């Protein structure tokens, strides 16, 4: 399921973009904080409502994951982190530049068209 999410959200941004989406997803499961206090599994994270992923509303998400995406998802589940998603819990694709904050969360950086946002270590120590 994580592999399908990574592909549906960021296939156009290559392996690194998909890894970053996976990084955010795994962080949400591990964090136990803020909007994700009750998220404990990958399916809960993927289908969280409100706050889930737009990709789940499109048919592409429901196609089977390919070996490549499965290998990338396993890397994230095994603890690999990719900057700027390392400690991030959110990402989005703005029309222009990344804002310095998004819903009171700080910008961690940008990769191609996605901006990544992280909580403070005080708010979410489990993502650090």
UniProtKB/TrEMBL annotation:
Classification via Pfam families: Hydrolase_2 (PF07486)
GO MF: hydrolase activity
Span of domain Cell wall hydrolase SleB: 12-117
InterPro entries: Cell_wall_hydrolase_SleB, SleB_dom1
This protein's name: N-acetylmuramoyl-L-alanine amidase
Organism expressing this protein natively: Paenibacillus methanolicus
């Amino acid at each position: 399921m994580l592999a399908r999410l990574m592909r549906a959200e960021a296939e156009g941004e290559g392996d690194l973009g998909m890894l970053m989406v996976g990084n955010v997803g795994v962080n949400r499961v591990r964090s136990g904080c803020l909007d994700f206090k009750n998220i404990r599994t990958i399916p809960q994270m993927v289908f969280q409502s409100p706050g889930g992923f737009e990709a789940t509303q499109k048919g592409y998400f429901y196609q089977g994951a390919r070996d490549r995406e499965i290998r990338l998802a396993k890397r994230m589940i095994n603890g690999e982190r990719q900057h700027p998603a390392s400690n991030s819990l959110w990402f989005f694709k703005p029309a222009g530049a990344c804002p310095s904050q998004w819903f009171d969360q700080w910008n961690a950086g940008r990769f191609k068209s996605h901006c990544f946002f992280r909580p403070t270590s005080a708010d979410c120590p489990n993502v650090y």
